[in-house]
Design a protein that fits this description.
The structure is a homodimer.
Chain A: H1 16-34, E1 39-40, H2 42-49, H3 53-61, E2 67-68, E3 72-74, H4 75-86, E4 92-97, H5 101-108, E5 117-124, E6 133-134, E7 137-141, H6 145-151, E8 156-159, H7 163-175, E9 180-183, E10 196-199, H8 202-213
Parallel strand pairs in A: 4-5, 4-8, 5-7, 8-9, 9-10
Antiparallel strand pairs in A: 1-3, 2-3, 6-7
Helix pairs in contact in A: 1-4, 2-3
Chain A binds a DNA duplex (22 and 22 nucleotides) through helix 3 and strand 2.
Chain lengths: ~220, ~220
DNA sequence: GGATGTGAAGTATTTCACAGCC
DNA sequence: GGCTGTGAAATACTTCACATCC
């Protein structure tokens, strides 16, 4: 049956760890593209990311057969296919909730747009902030969330509000149909099945490393 | 032999996933402390973090027996013990390398200090930046790295330099004795065994979520 | 000859389930 | 009665190893 065709596996059949590695592969492939390299083996790709070649081949096999035996993978082809699989060839409208110091930094961070993420709306509760112009966006009241999120087909939100409001804000976002959340607040919000959340949490990251330093003499 | 005493397991015997969960437990325990709650069960703790009670008990069992059957865990005691295990009762001196827009945001982020991480030195290569005062630190030339890192017992570094310099900077840091790195550059640097690295990478985080949204009609 | 794709084998991690204790 | 601590069972994930194909 299916031969050289890419599979369209049920999303639930693919382990989530595999999905989290795909963007990394895309990033390396992108660099190889820029360097004009046309073919890459799982061996070479793995060396870039400290991942075994077998793992890369297995990961890719969830989605199809992209390589040529004896040769490797076409950088361009694999890159394009992985971007397709991840949905990175679409534009994604993103809302930012919380326009404090951190929210403003996020709004002016230039790294999201080249990857297809467009920050199209910013919200805050603070009346002093609502109405302000930040970059090319006007900060809106959180009361307008529902209208804007459905009106502009926003399915991703970045949350940068104080911890005590985070759960409430995320609940509201989910009610409004948001299905993916990037949370910058130092807390682990609860989300029901079917909603994805990733926490950006530098303090937690540091705290999980000190364990391995803890036998050092002095810091 | 060992009975109610906390074990001191070989660091290598504890799965790394377990270690990454401990700081989350600490954070919840900290909140419970503030709320004046004195005892907590693995059930309750798990509910806060969407983790099964069995997992929490198993995780803790790598380090000792902290609970009381029929009752649960003393919030204060478990909190203190976990902080000890993670080395969070020490002060940690941290260097920041790269004082561009992002580096400055990190240097002025108030969230590290309360958790025992002290940003004690900032480095950059750019001559226009070296010598500048940022917060209460003077930006130093990267040439002074070795001297300062060993002189001030710095074993943790935060890296926020452009991608093309990241690997080189990290190699230098490791040469100077740094053993834990928090990397904000959008790349996956290579580090040898015995060095810990965590990447803060919001774009990768977003890209691993779009996979699950990709069957939506329109974005 | 060299590299993929993949069942099978091997590890790692999570969950079960229950004896033991408060 | 309720909850911990933990071997054993179940599940998830990674690596092996090789048939297959370019």
């Amino acid at each position: 049956m299916v031969s050289n065709q890419a599979r369209q596996p049920d999303r639930a059949d693919v382990p989530e760890v595999v999905v989290t590695r795909l963007p990394q592969y895309v990033r390396v492939l992108n660099r190889l593209l820029e360097e004009g390299i046309e073919v890459v083996s799982s061996q070479q790709l793995g060396a870039q990311l400290q991942v075994t070649p077998a793992q890369i081949r297995k990961d890719l096999s969830y989605f199809g057969r992209f390589g040529k035996q004896g040769r490797g993978y076409s950088v361009r082809h694999l890159h394009d296919r992985l971007r397709d699989i991840l949905g990175l060839n679409s534009y994604w409208n993103v809302a930012v909730v919380g326009v404090g110091r951190l929210g403003r930094a996020i709004l002016s961070y230039p790294g999201f747009t080249p990857d297809g993420f467009h920050l199209v709306a910013a919200f805050d509760t603070n009346e002093d902030v609502v109405g302000l112009q930040v970059g090319d966006l006007t900060v809106r009241s959180i009361d307008e969330l529902e209208e804007v999120v459905s009106g502009q087909n926003i399915s991703i939100a970045i949350v940068a509000v104080p911890v005590r409001f985070t759960q409430e804000v995320i609940d509201t976002l989910i009610d409004c149909g948001v299905r993916a959340i990037l949370n910058y607040a130092p807390t682990s919000p609860q989300v029901h099945d079917g909603v994805r959340i990733r926490n950006i949490d530098p303090v937690i990251a540091l705290q999980s490393m000190t364990y391995y330093l803890a036998d050092s003499p002095e810091h």
